[in-house]
Every structure is written in structure tokens, then in C-alpha cells.
């Protein structure tokens, strides 16, 4: 089979992508899954390649089982493969691990590209020794052990709790745990989690560790500065009021060489926007997400979105949408009819509504505090790749620029290696703090990942080596 005959290409091998692929495989479609990561499983299902990985968290174990089924399937899986070009005609150019460039032109695409973490910046947040809670999870899960005697964990939302629980599970000690959320906010999150079967089971499995964290957690506290000579030595913290604003005079300092911090998630939309998919900005769904219809099809025909790209919500939303997207593809390709589609998806859509409701609670806890952004030190780094400071962004705004893309052109914020993955949401928040609402995605251009000229000048073939 020529790879141009693929019925479906799925970008992303997390919960959403794997579930979509396994569902479609049962209907004898030719599927190819592309992921830049090494092992399938996405952000949540990280594990030691050869080792004992089971956990007390039911959803994690369910994910491991899905990964096992995926590995045993005959689905084409291109790992360590970077998508460097895509267009509205669904022509996809992928760089394989051997640096060869391959073109795939499927009938249908499912974007299951997940989310990435965001951190509300503070002075010194780019010092070595300050890591995100997601990075901490990756290190813990892939090595199976802790990497430091003691850690300080801080942030808002839920990821820092998940990271703290994993740290304790691997035998680590938490020096301090700081939470920007107030107790009533956390209670809201808890009641929302308990409404979902999957989250309820996870919650009770994590309860002993969560209680341990909660008993030592200090609420309404945020990190406002990281200090150190070339590496983290201490953090400055402060109390915040009910609106998240720092209470002057409440500042205190704590020595630490490791801080894990996270403030929430934002959808990965670079590839989808390059394919021409329209976005909408909805704070309740986690900010910028893809516009989708009742079939989870994007504004581009035969391109679907599963998981975070259509709204932050976690593993169960991702899995449900992966399955729904698979059935929508089957409906569009006339493999099943509308009645069968309805029967297969009706319960999935009901569960999805609950998962979205939990996602909305999470999103309400990850909003950037615009007042605090205004109060940030002008020397705070915003674009870490290009070393662009807050004062550079403010200068551009005062010059009259009111969009992420115009600020990118003037300051280079977003032009570095990560192509704005970290700073574009920060620039959006800074613009908001100046009263400008930019609800667009940062412009993405091919190559979507850093690629050397040598590679770009090389021959492009189909996956089986045949000439284009
Ligand atoms: C750092 C981090 C840690 C997290 N930890 C937890 C946790 O401990 N518990 C929890 O419940 N939830 C966690 N989440 C939330 C997580 O998003 C969901 O729970 C779940 O993983 C969503 O599954 P998904 O399939 O939608 O996306 P993901 O699991 O994020 O999978 C998306 C996949 O797409 C791939 N991808 C993205 N862009 C491209 C591209 N351009 N080319 C090729 N491949 C691409 C990625 O490599 C990834 O494997 C975490 C999220 C992040 C960002």
C-alpha cells in the first residue's frame, strides 16, 4: 500500500489519538499515527520503557492498557517524527528520526495534539532550578524515581497536585506546597471531580497522598520572585487576596534549589492553525481552542479535533473525543450510517458533557492575574528563546502595537526555537493587561519545527520511498 492511501492520519499519540486509532482499526481503515515523542501515551501516560509502571491511579492504568493494545496493533506509528509542514489540502510533510522528509496525503486528519503547560511569569522564573510541574511529572514517570532530596511545589489549578502526588508516590519529600487557589475554589474543583466516574475513582486512589499534601499546603500564596546567582537559591512568596492580588507587606522568602510550578494548560494548535482550522477564544474552555461542529469536525472539511485542541478537560475528555472523532470519520467516509452513529456515540456525548464541565472548573482556576502582570518587574523574561523582556513588550505596545503577531515582528518574541509556544500566551496576557484583546493564534510558518537547510534541501518521498 502506498502511504498516500492512508484513510486517516492522526497527529498525537496521547489518550485521544490512541483511542481514535484503535477504534478506527476495528473498521479496517488504514491509519497512520504521527507523534514527536518517543513512546506512545502522550503527556499523561509517561512511563519507563522496560520496567514496572503500574500506579494506584485507575485512569493511568487504563492509559497503560490502551498503550499496550496500541503497541500490539498493526497501526502505522511514526514516533520521533516531526510534522514540519501542513496545508489546507491535507498534504503533510514529516521529518523522520533519520532526517528524511516524507509526504503523506490522507483522506482525513484527526488533530490530537494535546496541551502544554503555562506559567504566569515572575522575576527569575527562567533560572535553572525552576521547572514546570509537567516537566517534573515527565522526569518522575520516565525515570521511576525522584531527582532531588526535597522540592518546593507551587501553582494554581490541579497539575501541581497531580505532580505532588507522583512525587510522594515515588518516595520523595515535599519541603513546601503553595497554592494560589483559595479553599472555596478547591472545593468547587472537588465537587466537579466527584461528579465524574473516572475522576472520582482517581480522586479516591490519590486521597492519602492528597490529604498529606493538603494538610501541609498553604493556600492563597504565590511565588513572586526566584533569586539566585546563575541557579535557583531562594524564592520570594506573598499572600494573595480573594482576587489573586498580592497583599503588600505579606512577602516572605524561602531557601530552595528546586521549585516546580504550574498555572494550567493551553491547547497545542500550531499544526491545526497551519492547516487553516479556525480558532475561537473562550476562557471557559481554556482560552484559544479550535472551532468544531457537532461531529467534532473543524472548520476544515475532513479535519477533526480530539482532546485539548477543542477545550482543556483532561484524559477522560480526550479519550471520549478520540472515540467520537473515530465514529464521525466513519460516518463521513460512509462506513456507518447516521442511525449507527447515533447509537455508538449517544452515551459518549453524555459523558463528554461532564468532562467539559470539569474542564471549565479547571479553566476558571488558571486565569492570569492581569493586575499582577502590570506589577511585574520590567526585567522579567517573557520570550525565553530570544531573551525578550517585559520592558520590550511594553515598549512595543506603547509604540501602538496591539496584536501578538505585530509584537512578534517588532521584538522577535515568538521567533525562537519554540516558535512562541511559551511566550505567545504571555504576550496575549500582557496585551490584555493594557486593555487590548487579541484572540488570534500566533502565526505559524513552515518549517513548524527547527529544521536544517540540508534536510530541507533533501529529497521528499512517500513513506514507502516512492517518488512524489
Ligand atoms: C506537561 C503535562 C503534564 C500532564 N500531566 C497530567 C497528569 O499527570 N494527569 C492528568 O490527568 N493529566 C495530565 N495532563 C493533562 C493532559 O493533557 C491530559 O490528561 C491527557 O494527556 C490528554 O490527552 P491527549 O491525547 O489529548 O493529549 P496528550 O496526552 O498531550 O498527547 C498529545 C500528543 O501529541 C503529540 N504532539 C503534539 N503536537 C505535535 C506535533 N506538532 N507533531 C507531532 N506530535 C505532536 C505530543 O507529543 C503528545 O504525545 C498533563 C498535560 C501536560 C501538558
Q: List ligands, each type once.
A: flavin-adenine dinucleotide
Q: Approximately what portion of the residues adopt beta-strand conformation?
A: 15-25%
Task: Provide the number of structural domains.
Answer: 3
Terminal-residue CA separation: 15 Å
Judged by helices, strands and strand pairing, the structural class is alpha/beta
CATH architectural name of the largest domain: 3-Layer(bba) Sandwich
Low-confidence stretches at least 5 residues in length (pLDDT < 50)? none
Describe this structure in words.
By secondary structure, the protein is α/β, with parallel strands linked by helices. It folds into 3 domains: 3-116 and 266-362, FAD/NAD(P)-binding domain (3-Layer(bba) Sandwich), CATH 3.50.50.60; 119-263, FAD/NAD(P)-binding domain, CATH 3.50.50.60; 370-433, BFD-like [2Fe-2S]-binding domain (Arc Repressor Mutant, subunit A, Orthogonal Bundle), CATH 1.10.10. 36% of the residues lie in helices and 20% in strands. It is built from 14 helices and 23 strands. It has helices spanning 15-25, 58-72, 133-143, 159-169, 183-194, 197-216, 270-274, 315-332, 338-364, 370-374, 390-398, 404-411, 423-433, 453-456, and strands spanning 8-11, 31-34, 76-78, 82-86, 92-95, 101-104, 108-111, 115-117, 130-132, 150-155, 173-179, 217-219, 221-227, 234-239, 252-255, 259-262, 265-267, 279-282, 287-290, 303-305, 381-383, 388-389, 460-462. The strands form 7 sheets. Strands 3-2-1-7-20 form a 5-stranded parallel sheet, covered by helices on one side. It is globular.
